[in-house]
Design brief:
The chain is an alpha/beta fold. It has a single domain (about 10-170), classed as von Willebrand factor, type A domain (Rossmann fold). It contains 7 helices and 5 strands. The longest helix is centred in the N-terminal third of the chain and has 17 residues, at about 30-45. The two termini are about 25 Å apart. The model has no long low-confidence stretch (mean pLDDT about 75). This is DUF7788 domain-containing protein. Pfam families: DUF7788.
């Protein structure tokens, strides 16, 4: 299914995961595993220079090259052992992505399309910024425009994974269980089926 979603539908191409594997997650092992698994999946589906990379949830985000070759267990442990903080500096996150694009002299179509933040925190409590997201995002857009990437500022999807958080994990039409199910059953091999209600 993953290969089909990627190769035929072009989904998840040049997505980048920000994985929260903070110690606070340890009381919610399922959320921790989802964060790591989705981070690994997206890192495998991206193209260079993003392939095999994730960012840790931190005030000082860094792009990590996942070590371990083809050994999935080793990759899992590598991501699990990343040092994370309690907050994420969104502006620094976008600055880091922009810096990679500039350093690699990437064309706009090679830019990260979406940043998937996987955390046990909700969006408002996760931010390390003292200013509002709207103000930060305007500054981010200005920086991208200045470097020639104004039309391709990555979209951010913030997914709160904690089972203890009553908030909805994602906005409508973003990546969630319903969307993934719809994506899977929209495959042409299922088109001959009839839904009876």
């Amino acid at each position: 299914m993953v290969e089909d979603v990627y190769s035929k539908q072009g989904k998840f191409k040049n997505w980048l995961a920000v994985c929260d594997v903070h110690l606070k997650f340890m009381d919610d092992e399922d959320s921790l595993e989802v964060s790591i698994a989705l981070g690994l999946l997206l890192s495998e589906l991206s193209e260079e220079p993003w392939k095999g990379k994730v960012i840790q949830f931190s005030c000082e985000p860094q792009l990590h090259s996942i070590q371990g070759g083809d050994d999935l267990r080793y990759k899992y442990e590598f991501v699990r052992r990343m040092t994370c903080g309690v907050d994420l500096d969104f502006e620094k996150l976008f600055d880091l992505i922009l810096q990679v694009a500039v350093n690699e002299n990437l064309k706009p179509d090679q830019m990260i399309k979406k940043v998937l933040v996987l955390s046990h925190r909700d969006f408002d409590s996760a931010s390390a910024a003292e200013t509002s997201w709207e103000i930060d995002y305007q500054a981010i857009q200005g920086k991208y425009k200045e470097k020639g990437y104004g039309d391709v500022v990555p979209h951010m999807v913030f997914w709160t994974l904690s089972k203890y958080n009553p908030e909805k994990p994602v906005a409508p039409r973003e990546i969630g269980p319903d969307y993934l199910m719809e994506l899977a059953i929209s495959d042409e091999r299922y088109q001959a089926l009839t839904v009876v209600d």
